[in-house]
Amino acid sequence: MYRLCVLIFFIYLNNFIASPVQSDIEQKFLEYEIVPDVLSVAPTDYLAVTFPSGAEVHNGNVLTPTLVKDLPTLSWNANPDSFYTVANVDPDVPSHAEPTQGQVVHWLAGNVPGDDILAGDQLMEYFGAGPGKDSGLHRYVLLVYQQPAKLDFDEPRMSNLTAENRYYFSIADFAKKYDLGDPIAGNFYRAEYDDYVPILYEQLGV
Ligand SMILES: *[C@@H]1O[C@H](CO)[C@@H](O)[C@H](O)[C@H]1NC(C)=O
Predict the structure, then answer these.
(1) Hey, what's the signal peptide range on this chain (predicted)?
(2) Cα 171 vs. chain centroid, distance in angstroms?
């Protein structure tokens, strides 16, 4: 009996230590329903995202459009010999309650060598968060996919001086089209309207 108890105890202990504990970021992607709204599988790795304002993205924290207006720096466990696709989408357009305009793409870069995003193809140049007035908090999801190889993207290249071609996007469909699999790293923040939004709308001509 004693031996059995000891054995069970060690099996228990071993499970506890060896089972991969669901990472924070996976849990948060589920808690905030980014899975299933945006993805079917959450990334396991944490994507570090820092804005020039000093703001850091962390597991759905609340930031402001002012804090995220400029191109962030991202870091993940990148292999310098691999190509990556980096995306930033807002699935809550015009609002989380009624996202009838689907995802808006805030940033899409492909063929990123290692983690040097600006050396990749800027398919959709970065612009920051622009949640409409009184539309509540939106989720801004940042994702990194590891590409199987260097790719030929047939999407038109879009600057950040227009909102054209940014609506009704699906990062899951895009990933499927280019065989990117599931994202390897991710993170997200939330933001609602502030007085930077009209300035962004002016930049985008909307
Ligand atoms: C617009 O995109 C360019 C090229 O990626 C980038 O250098 C610039 O910072 C972006 N502007 C804003 C306001 O995000």
Answers:
(1) 1-23
(2) 10
Neighbours of 20 (CB within 10 A): 7
Please write the tens of the pLDDT for every residue from 107-134.
999 999 999 999 999 999 999 999 999 9
| Nearest atom of ligand 1 to the alpha carbon of 122 | 5
Kindly state if the Cβ of 122 falls inside 6 Å of ligand 1: yes
pTM over 0.70: yes
Is residue 107 within 6 Å of ligand 1 at its C-beta? Answer: no
Q: Structural domains in the chain? A: 2-204 (3.90.280.10)
CA distance 204 to 164: 9
CB 82 within 8 A of CB 147: yes
